[in-house]
Amino acid sequence: MTRFERDNVTVAVIVQAVQGDLRVRGRAGARLMVDGDGVEVEQLGEEQPYIVRTAGDCRMTVPDDVNVSVQTVNGDAKLSEVGGKLDVHSVGGDLTVRNVRDVRIRSTAADLRIKHAEGDVSVDSVGADATIREVNGAVRVLSVGADLYVRNIGGDCVVESVGSDLVLSIDFLPDHAYRFGAGSDVLCRVHPDANATFYLPAEMEVRLDVAAEITETDDGQMVRMGDGSATIQIDRGQELQLVGEEEDYMVSFGVQIEEELEARLSNLEEKLSQQLDGLDERIQAKTEQFASQAERFAERAQRQAERAADRVRRSMERRKRKREPGMRGVAFRADVRPGAKHDPVSEEERLMILQMVQENKISIEEAERLLSALES
After folding, report:
1. How many domains does the chain have?
2. Which of 20, 302, 328, 374 could crosslink 56 through cysteines, CB 3.0-4.6 Å?
3. pTM score, whole prediction
4. 106 and 127 Cβ atoms separated by less than 8 Å
């Protein structure tokens, strides 16, 4: 793993290519720190952006007031605490964005999760599910491949196309624009005293769990709540369901669990990041010590195995001498004359047992019991 550090960084940071996963966190101060596999960082000139490339995973800490552009990430990406403009071009896996200002996302192949944006959010393409929550500005989404959950949007909210279900939890305001299109159902959580008018296609089914009026129009149908001052246009969908705030317990319960889990994971990641700062040097200092200890342990184990093999060999020789009549106390000589009585245990079997002892596959006691069984 390679580390790059630079102080007094006030220009933008461009993450040009990351072959693995990417983690970017903004932090107070003016220090840029990049950890990763095969890190390459360059600045083409004075007041020019820093360009970052890595051959594997990448973990970055950037000044929290600089602009960040992420061009290509092959794996997952998590971006948080970025106070400047955030521009993401292509992410091959999941993308998580938290506590940012303005964010523009061109493409993410898997899931997208955005939470807490001070400014506007713009998303071109999401391959799977998406969650967009707690945005003070406007939200614009072109395409989501599966489900989309939108909650607490302060500005306009326009979603062109959702492949499956769309869940909305928004306080609709008269001076804002709202337009949605979904491939399946649209579930909208509204306050019972909301003042909103929903315009939808004539063939779209409507299910109401709140007080509202349904009226047919020349080009579709209209659902009106209160004085209908806020206007919501639904271009496409199979069914519209309006539920009250107290009836949305399933979504609220899931969101509550998600918030608690994300908060704990975020705190844990921050603590780990602080503890890992400077860890590379400590690991490198300990590596040689561990390597020398490992060599000594290996040599000791080898010597113990050799002594164990010698004990088994001597034990087998003693057993062989006891079996030969009149040979006690006399050195053993192999009898190869035709018709001579052969040892019940062959040399190949003894060598195999010795090898098993030396490789720590069996103990000395097990080897002796095995020899006794073969002899009998």
Report:
1. 2
2. 20
3. 0.68
4. no
